[in-house]
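Re: that chain you flagged

S.,

Sorry for the slow reply, it's been a week of failed gels. I finally had a moment to sit down with the sequence you sent. For the record, here it is as I used it:
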Amino acid sequence: MGFAICCLTCDADDVAGSPRCKSCISSHIRTRDKIADGPAESKADRISREFVTMLAKPIDYIDDPIHGETMAQYKMLIDAHHGLTPATTTEEIQAKFEALKNKKSISLIRNVATNRVWGEEVLGAEEREELLIKIAGEPKQKIPTWEELLEEVGDLLDSD
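Prediction finished late last night. Pasting the structure tokens below so you have them in one place:
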């Protein structure tokens, strides 16, 4: 949503469904919808949309020369709320880098939306042909090579 910073810095008890939380969240939704409604007509519209975008993914903006420090603090608040602590030793930092390097990227479009049952397997020639028939409807005719065409022409000339 992008307004989690309000919840993270709120002085109210962290009780889901409390009247105060419900009123704040509904206010956040109205504000976000009002900001995103229609084309950005003024500089204030553009800046507010940019800021909501920054709040939604603060990690992408920690290098921003103006808002970077605030986004880094915001990210630390979010991490603390989720029970994550920043790496402090060289070993912890190296372990985090290794974990990120070894993390397998997940593509919802590739793995879920397309319902690929074969996953990372490479399809064989027969399976590719079967898929092509399903997609195109008919198997493709074999395109003759130059040698085959010349041989066919030679046969036609010999038969005369």
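What I noticed first: The longest helix spans residues 19-36.

Talk soon,
D.
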